[in-house]
Amino acid sequence: MANMVTLTIDGKPVTVPAGTLVIDAAKQAGIDIPAFCYYEGFSVQAACRMCLVEVEKMPKLQPSCALPAAEGMVVHTETPKVVEARKSTIEFLLTNHPLDCPVCDKGGECELQDMTFRYGLGESQFLEIKHHADEKQWSPLVFYDPARCILCYRCIRVCDEGLGVAALGLSYRGVSAEIIPNKGDHLECDECGWCIDVCPVGALTSGTYRYKSRPWEMNYVPAICTHCSNGCKTTLSVRNGEIIRSNNRDRSGINGEFLCVKGRFGFDFVHNEERLQSPLIRKDGKLEPVSWSEALKFVVSRVRETIERNGKFAVIGSTRTTNEENFYLQKFARQGLRTNNIDHHRSGDVITLVDALAGRTDALATVGDLYTCDAALVLGADLAQQHPLLAYQLRANWRHHRSPVFVVTPGPVREDQYAARSLRAEAGGEVERLEELREELKARQNLVVLYGASVKGEAVRRLVAFGDSLGIPVKYVCLVDYVNSRGAVDMGLLPHLGPGYKPVEIPGMHLDAMMAAPDLDVIWVAGANPLEGGREFASKNAFVIVHELFLTETAQRADVVLPSMSLYEKNGTVTNVCGEVQRTKAGPKVMGTKSDLDILGLLAAQLGFDIGIPSQEKVLDEIRRTVRGYNVPLPVLATGGAAQAAVLNGNVPVDAQPEQVRPSGDTLFTSGTLGKYSKRLAQLMEAPGRLFQP
Amino acid sequence: MTLLAPPHPLEKRVLLRRFPEPRTEPVWIDEYLRTDGYEAIRKALAMEPEQIVDEVKKSALRGRGGAGFPTGMKWSFVDRKSPKPKYVVVNADEGEPGTCKDRILMGYDPHRLIEGVLIGGRAIGANRGWIYIRGEYREYIDILDRAIAEAYERGFLGSNVLGTGWEFHLSTHTGAGSYECGEETALLESLEGKRGNPRLKPPFPATSGAFQCPTIVNNVETFCAVPDIILNGGEWYAALGTPKNGGTRLVCLSGHIERPGVYEVPLGMNLLTILNEIGGGVWKGRKLKAVIPGGSSSPVLKAEECDIPADYDSLAKAGSMLGSGATVVLDETTDMAKVLARLMKFYAHESCGWCIPCREGTTWLKKITARLEEGIGSERDIDTIDRISQSMLGRTFCPLGDAAAMPAMAIARKFREEILEKLSRADAFAPVEGAQPLVVL
Ligand SMILES: Cc1cc2nc3c(=O)[nH]c(=O)nc-3n(C[C@H](O)[C@H](O)[C@H](O)COP(=O)(O)O)c2cc1C
Ligand code: SF4
Ligand code: SF4
Ligand code: SF4
Ligand code: FES
């Protein structure tokens, strides 16, 4: 246990580990010391002087953000002298501040406003002309207004220390000092927009939110980012059914404040004008809009007829739908359509891992573990591009705890910047190089191993064997690509495994087999785009039913297109790359769409399938009761927490079909089909040089 | 190069002892060696490092860069046993307005500085030193570079100093025109190639300085005092000055004085003696109005406050400071509002902008005082100057904020009546002929 010291803050004794900053010790005692430049988790600047406190036996006021607590220290945080100092700091800040609060995006949630309310003088003594510098646009997403900037350097630090991008710096001096992109006039960065969020004032504004809304005009909806598998919690700001912005300022969820460009800005696909808002039926070779009842009736008749003549079904599920929908879909397929021909786009070999780790507990890492583990090993994955939150966690762990990261990848990755060792290996050959790291890894207390899609099948088993041979606790993360890729596996969107990795009696066709089968009667695609890139179903005459947001390649081939909701529009749970189950809530509304659960529920009722009530709560309840490892505590979910599913429940005696694992190859700025309908992501992709390269 | 005046009889030349006659050429290595140059380092090499530090402690030498911190004590803070390399840094930024002494030392006696640095390096167990010199001093940079080359040639610098096996390297590093880069931690940032912002203290440079290694940073004059301390002993040096204020120092006399220039006087010499005897009194037979005794950051002394010994402690007691030894004389005709405005313009220009009270305070002061200089303003402005200054004092990140606030407060308080009188004279609403814009943006 660390050396503890006891100090007195405003008369309250507080005991904290030696070295704790007074500002943090005060927080522990429930005392809020105002601060602009202090930002938890980032380096101390001691620049704003807002946090000055009086310390007995010290003649000058002391910045509590830079003052380590010491035994017997007596601190006063709100004496007349302290209050006077804060008043004068606010007065100083306002001298050159434009005070354009009525039109400033930050108005209503501005720390300078709040602080002025708390400490401001009622009257200004400043009679001079204010210093001014013009606003600048640094990227399609980031605008900077130097006049509003209070120079707290938060933006510089989150970018540099937090992300390792270091796109921002400080230029000029004195009152002319301002933040600048290190490239001079434009940003070359991840465009994550975190700098905008941490800005305490309206100096950094977002190209997507500027002048759109007042903070009090919006509803705040807790959702899970629908893009990558990391499962960042995001708070959607929704006005009149429209998402206006996305951020996570309350730091709830596994990601704290972190979001990458997709989570913060990539929500605009929701309101893309190409969204399907009416069902379509192919009439005379052309897809024509029809009513929901007509479309459903059409589907019911074709399905019933196919069932009656013992026709062949194939079902392709989604990696972006909820666990409830996936569970219901596989039930619909297995019990309703009576087929095990069900699969989805698999992007990581989870099955082999679950089998190889059979019988263990604590062998699967959480997102939190990446921040606390003593070392991490990354195999065959470009985390900064494809798993931004995981990359952030590892970096924060190194920054705060110096936990080393070891990297074995085909090409350079951003982790090389600080990695203890970076080895290069051809995709698929990563595991071959592990011996070179043995001694260094053995010396650590514990290890988390993250592996990408190139490590699959036997390689996963060899990896686990290597982990076992180290003699230290090792946890694993099998990297998968999309928001509910992992949930799709856990919920049994697989031809040979039902929910909870339970083998089925007669395995059905996997995805490749479905694509190649010439004799399918009905192909049901619930939120996937298997025909992307010009691929085709070998069953030329199959009746194709597609649930989609957009008229994708697959939807264009459909006989019936049912306009479905995106994840942001519905309630449910999703499972992230680490197997952590989280709840997401419906935010915006898009007229004419239905959730996949509703669609399947309506059809099940009309088809007379007895597969349970299609209510999210009811299905979740069934999942919790029947899927092994998914009895996740509801209060955790209800309060916005993440509960890791316990999927290690013995061997999985099936062929894991590693050849079915295919990485989607997304980058920081792409997100499969969905990403193509985000104009903002497209805009960023067009701006050359924007993408940060290590 | 500035002409060094012949010594005044009241001067005590130790630092300038090689200059009994006016001259224009630096002392190059042969002349330096003829006048017992590099004898001190020979002696120091035979001493234990602790002994060197003790000798400097005994000398009561205090830093000549401005803060007057006891040099021996500073050197003793370096952990010689630290496995990290240790560094010596010379502060030759000479940025304090009115200060023009370091350049005399570097320009005339460059080897004295090199020798002082060598002794400092020996004392803390360093193998590397830099002279961080302001970029405007091109002439002196060239002189130092030549002297350093000479010292390398003769084995005083290099991988085997005087055959003792001790390695010591030295080079100049040029600043880029920022007053703040004279502040020791900003200097270190700049030396490392970064933006010249000051660092959070602690840790102090003695623990974590250049490249996070133990480092001593001292002024040029401070290092230049060291060779004679080692040669003649700390007690000898201390006895030249007053208790706790050892030795002699350079005073840079400027302003409204008959004989401006750089002089060497023992610490504790009466300020009026310096002005009237050495400096020849206020110019043009005018009366003294005020003196800025230790560089622009030191609070101004009114004429009647000037009858005091000029050493660190006496000036501190009088509410001012000895600072960098730059003594600016202001005669009875001086417009104090103008002095104030000029000073505030300097600090607003030089504030690095890192912290709020200094960044905003200096600019605000500049704007108000620019107005007062034009005769536009009211009594309330003078109160505001006082209030702004107090809001800066002791609350800024580095001492530059204090350096601006102290003189502002002193002038506003001591010359309140004069400024008020000026304000009442001017017609605030009529355009003043040839006036500058009200506010310089
Ligand atoms: C704003 C500011 C500017 C300074 N400029 C100089 C300078 O130009 N030269 C100098 O020697 N010290 C300067 N100092 C003092 C240094 O920080 C430091 O105290 C000095 O280098 C220590 O050396 P000394 O102990 O030998 O005086 C400055 C301090 C401040 C706060
Ligand atoms: S832009 Fe915002 S976050 Fe960055 S320094 Fe200015 S006020 Fe702080
Ligand atoms: S890291 Fe992944 S989950 Fe998080 S915001 Fe980015 S795309 Fe979304
Ligand atoms: S007081 Fe603050 S703004 Fe002024 S120079 Fe020092 S750090 Fe920079
Ligand atoms: S919060 Fe401590 S100085 Fe800014």
Briefly characterize the structure:
With 694 residues, chain A is of the alpha/beta class. Chain A has 4 domains: 4-92, Ubiquitin-like (UB roll), CATH 3.10.20.740; 114-271, Alpha-Beta Plaits (2-Layer Sandwich), CATH 3.30.70; 305-346 and 485-571 and 594-671, 3-Layer(aba) Sandwich (Rossmann fold); 350-479, Dimethylsulfoxide Reductase, domain 2 (3-Layer(aba) Sandwich), CATH 3.40.228.10. Chain A has a 7-stranded mixed β-sheet.
Q: What kind of oligomer do you see?
A: heterodimer
The main β sheet of chain B shows up as:
5 strands, mixed
Enumerate the strands of the largest sheet of chain B in spatial order, edge to edge or round the barrel: 6-5-9-7-8
The parts of chain A where pLDDT drops under 50 for at least 5 residues are none
Q: So, CATH architecture of the largest domain in chain A?
A: 3-Layer(aba) Sandwich
From the alpha-carbon coordinates, what is the Rg of chain A to the nearest angstrom?
27 Å
Class from secondary-structure proportions of chain A: alpha/beta
Number of domains of chain B: 3
- DSSP, total strands of chain A: 30
Overall 3D geometry of chain A? Answer: globular
Number of domains of chain A: 4
The secondary structure category of chain B is: alpha/beta
Chain-averaged pLDDT of chain B: 95
Widest sheet, order of strands of chain A: 15-14-27-26-25-16-17
Helix content of chain A: 25-40%
In N-to-C order, the SSE pattern of chain B is HHHHEHHEHEHEHHEEHEEHEHHHHH
Q: What proportion of the residues of chain A form beta strands (DSSP E)?
A: 15-25%
* Average pLDDT figure of chain A: 96
User: Which CATH class of the largest domain in chain A applies here?
Assistant: Alpha Beta
CA radius of gyration of chain B: 22 Å
Low-pLDDT runs of chain B: 437-441
